[in-house]
């Protein structure tokens, strides 16, 4: 946790935020949570499992002037890897070569990860800092998803300062195409088995009728 912060949630709850919380009636509840330890600052086993199951993540950065920028990154499950209880790493694949995130991190290391699971309606917010690692073939090999057809360009390492779990309110439930395809395949297999059983019973019944 930043030494300037009395509580881990202070990474988000600035003095201005707390003033607004007080005015709108939510400060007391958050203060009670702060007294009990505040937000977690290390990656738990449950969080590790959630992170490494994701196929999509949003990475927020800001430039030296404070202008924010959000970039989407995706890949197969496991493309996000937890390296230890404070560090998340992933390969940054070649894209449109704007390098906005790379430039922002060169000027301002503060960063934010937003992960959302539409199937189970869960979202995780992670505050911290990030840095770009270039020309490290060993690290790329460690983080590159096996068999994934993308060109690795660099690595981003994210250091966790604090994280929080949001409630599922207002998250629409959506399913991955692979999940839908698997469910439809299972349904079709079940239908085929039932149709075969119906055909067998009809044939058996026809044979048993007196001529």
CATH topology of the largest domain: Pnp Oxidase, Chain A
Give the fraction of residues assigned to helices.
25-40%
**What's the number of domains?**
3
Number of DSSP-assigned strands? 7
Describe the structure.
By secondary structure, the chain is an alpha+beta fold. It has three domains: 39 residues, no CATH class; 127 residues, Pnp Oxidase, Chain A (Roll); 37 residues. It has six helices and seven strands; from the N terminus they run H-H-H-E-E-E-E-H-E-E-H-E-H. It has a seven-stranded antiparallel β-sheet with strand order 2-1-5-6-7-4-3. The mean pLDDT is 91.
Outline:
Helices cover about 35% and strands about 30% of the residues.
Features:
28% strand; Pnp Oxidase, Chain A; extended; 6 helices; 7 strands; single chain; 211 residues; seven-stranded antiparallel beta sheet; alpha+beta
Task: Detail the topology: elements first, then pairings.
Elements: H1 15-24, H2 27-35, H3 45-53, E1 56-62, E2 68-74, E3 81-84, E4 87-93, H4 100-107, E5 110-117, E6 122-133, H5 137-143, E7 152-166, H6 177-208
Antiparallel strand pairs: 1-2, 1-5, 3-4, 4-7, 5-6, 6-7
């Amino acid at each position: 946790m930043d030494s300037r912060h009395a509580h881990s949630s202070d990474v988000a709850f600035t003095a201005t935020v707390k003033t607004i919380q007080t005015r709108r009636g939510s400060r007391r509840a958050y203060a009670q949570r702060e007294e009990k330890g505040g937000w977690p600052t290390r990656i738990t086993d449950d969080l590790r499992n959630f992170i490494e199951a994701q196929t999509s993540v949003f990475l927020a950065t800001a430039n030296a002037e404070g202008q924010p920028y959000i970039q989407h990154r995706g890949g197969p499950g496991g493309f996000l890897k937890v390296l230890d209880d404070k560090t998340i790493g992933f390969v940054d694949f070649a894209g449109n070569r704007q390098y906005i995130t790379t430039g922002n991190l060169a000027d301002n290391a503060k960063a934010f990860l937003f992960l959302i699971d539409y199937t189970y309606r869960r979202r995780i917010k992670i505050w911290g800092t990030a840095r770009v690692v270039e020309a490290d073939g060993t690290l790329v090999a460690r983080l590159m998803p096996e068999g994934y057809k993308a060109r690795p360009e660099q690595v981003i390492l994210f250091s966790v300062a604090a994280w929080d779990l949001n409630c599922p309110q207002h998250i629409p439930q959506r399913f991955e195409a692979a999940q839908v395809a698997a469910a439809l395949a299972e349904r079709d297999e079940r239908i085929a088995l039932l149709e075969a059983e119906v055909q067998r019973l009809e044939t058996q019944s026809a044979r048993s009728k007196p001529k």
